[in-house]
Amino acid sequence: MTRKTHVHLSDLVGLNRLATDVTAELTDLTEALHNNIACSPGIVGTPMQECTSAIAGLVYESVRGVTRLVGGTTDVILAQLVPILDEKSSQEREAVLAALNGMMGDYLAATGNPLAISMRLRRNGQPLTLEREALSAAVPPPRDRLLVLVHGLCMNDLQWTRKGFDFGAALARDLGYTAVHLHYNSGLHTSTNGRAFAALMEALLQQWPEPLKEFGILAHSMGGLVSRSAYYYGMAAGQAWPQHLRKLVFLGTPHHGALLERGGNWVNVCLGLSPYTAPFARLGKLRSAGITDLRYGNLLDEDWQGFDRFEHAGDLRHPVPLPEGAWCYAIAANVGKKGGDLFGDGMVPVNSALGRHQDPRRNLSFAPSRQWVGYSMNHWDLLSRPAVYEQIRRWIASPRKPSIKYYII
Predict the structure, then answer these.
(1) How far apart are alpha carbons 316 and 191 in whole angstroms?
(2) Which of 237, 315, 319, 374 would bridge with 296, disulfide CB 3.0–4.6 Å?
C-alpha cells in the first residue's frame, strides 16, 4: 500500500520563505569567503589579489535582491491559497516539521514563518481546547489521574510511539492514567518554552473536568529541562499547578548538558581561527537557541540573556534545584555494558542524566531509589524498551500521601 505524505500549502509558503532566506545567507557567506581570501596575505605576505571590488559587491547585492524579490512574490501568491488548499497532516510531515523546528525553530518563529510550531497540548495528535466542556468531550472518563508527556529536541508528541510501544497508552491501560502530550517548538530557548508550558499547565488544571487524585509529568531528553523550567516559572508566578504535581520522571534528560553541543561549540571556535574558514562558522550559528541551551542545560532567561550564545564560555547557569513538592526520578541509558558509564546513551552522559555534578550547588541529588540506568541502549531506546517502561510503571504506581488534597484549582 502506498503511503501518502500530506504537504500543507502553508508548508510551501514556509519552505519558499526559508529557501529565500537561506539563499541570501549563502550569498553573504560566499561574498565573505571571497573577500577574506582576496584580502588575506599570500605566501610572501602580500594580498593574493585586490579586495572585493565595488563591481563584485554589486553582483552579490543583486543576487540577494533578486532572491528576495522572487521569494516575496511567490510567498504572496501561496499565502492567498493556504486557507483553500490546506489538507490533513501526516506523521511524516509532523516529523519533518519537528526536526526543522529543533534545528532552527527560533529563526522560524522570529521571521513569522508558518513552519514554526506553536505550543499546545494535544491528545492522539489533536489539539485540546482548554475549556471544561471541550475537555470533557475530548477526554473520556476516568479522568482522575493525569499524566503529561513532554517530548525532546527535534521530536513531536506522536513520536512517543516507537517500535510499537507507547508509554502513555501503556500507563493508561495499566494504571488508569489519562495521557496528554505537549507539542512545542524545541528550537526556542528552554526558558521561553518553560514559561509558556507553565501557563498551559495552569489553564489545563483550571479547566480539568473533575478532581485529580494523581498528576505527573513524564519527560524525555530536552523535555525534562522544559519541565523543570516550567515548574520554576510557575512557582515564581504564584501559579497553583506546581503544588499539585506529585511525580516527575526524566528520561535521558541532559540536566548538566550534552557533549555533542559542547563539541559543536568548539567546532565554531576552531572555524573562526582562520580567515579562510571563518565564513563557514556562520553555518554553525544557524543552529537554534534550543540546541545551544543544551551545552550546559540552561533553564532560565538569566542563563543566556546578555551573552553571545555561540561564544565559548564556561557554565554560566543559575543553580535550580529539583521541585520540592514532587517526587523526582531519573533514568539514564548507556550504550555499553553494565560497569562502564563512559559513553552514556550516545547523546547524554550518564552523570548528566542522573543530575550528578561536582559542584554541590548544581548537584540534583536524586535519591538512590529514584535513579536507574539501562545498559546496552541508546537515547532513543529509552522510549521503547520494556525494561524502561517497567521501571517507570513501578515508580508511577508507588503510593505516596499527598501533602494537600487534590482538588481542581
Answers:
(1) 15
(2) 315
What is the distance between the alpha carbons of residues 138 and 158, in angstroms, rounded to a whole number? 17
Pair 254, 291: CB distance under 8 Å? no
Cα–Cα distance for residue pair 35/179, rounded to 1 Å: 56
Among 35, 69, 88, the domain-final residue is 88
Residue 127, C-alpha cell as written in the block: 489539539
The torsion angles phi and psi of 362, rounded to 5 degrees, stand at -100, -15
- Residue 63: exposure state from Cβ atoms within 10 A (0-12, 13-18, ≥19): middle
Say what percent of the chain tops pLDDT 70: 68
* pLDDT digits 0-9 by tens, 24-33: 554 454 444 4
Identify whether residues 31 and 82 lie together within a single domain. Answer: yes
Say what the pTM is: 0.77
Rounded distance between C-alpha atoms, residue 49 and residue 51, angstroms? 6
Q: Is residue 4 part of a domain?
A: no
35-42 CB contacts, 8 Å cutoff, 24+ apart: 36/275, 36/276, 36/278, 36/279, 37/275, 37/276, 39/275, 40/275, 40/276
Q: Among all chains, which residue has been given the C-alpha cell 563557514? A: 280
Going from the C-alpha of 39 to that of each of 13, 26, 56, 278, 283, the distances in angstroms are: 39, 20, 14, 13, 22
Task: Please check the confidence at residue 22 and state whether its pLDDT lies above 90.
Answer: no
More confident residue, 382 or 259: 382
Within this chain, do residues 383 and 269 fall inside the same structural domain, yes or no? yes
> Based on the domain organization, do 80 and 99 belong to the same domain?
no
Distance CA 12, CA 23 (A): 16
Give yes or no: residues 175 and 255 share one domain.
Answer: yes
CATH number for the domain that contains residue 137: 3.40.50.1820
Nearest to 327 by CA among 216, 204, 238, 171: 216
Please indicate, yes or no, if residue 129 is contained in any of the structural domains.
Answer: yes
pLDDT for 339? 66
From first CA to last CA, the distance across the chain in angstroms is: 49
Residues 254 and 394 both lie in one domain: yes
**Under 8 Å between Cβ of 217 and 177:** no
Nearest to 13 by CA among 91, 71, 66, 63: 71
A 10 A CB-CB count for 101 gives 28
Considering 88, 119, 146, which residue would you say is the last residue of a domain?
A: 88
Which pLDDT tens digit goes with each residue over 116-135?
899 999 999 999 999 999 99
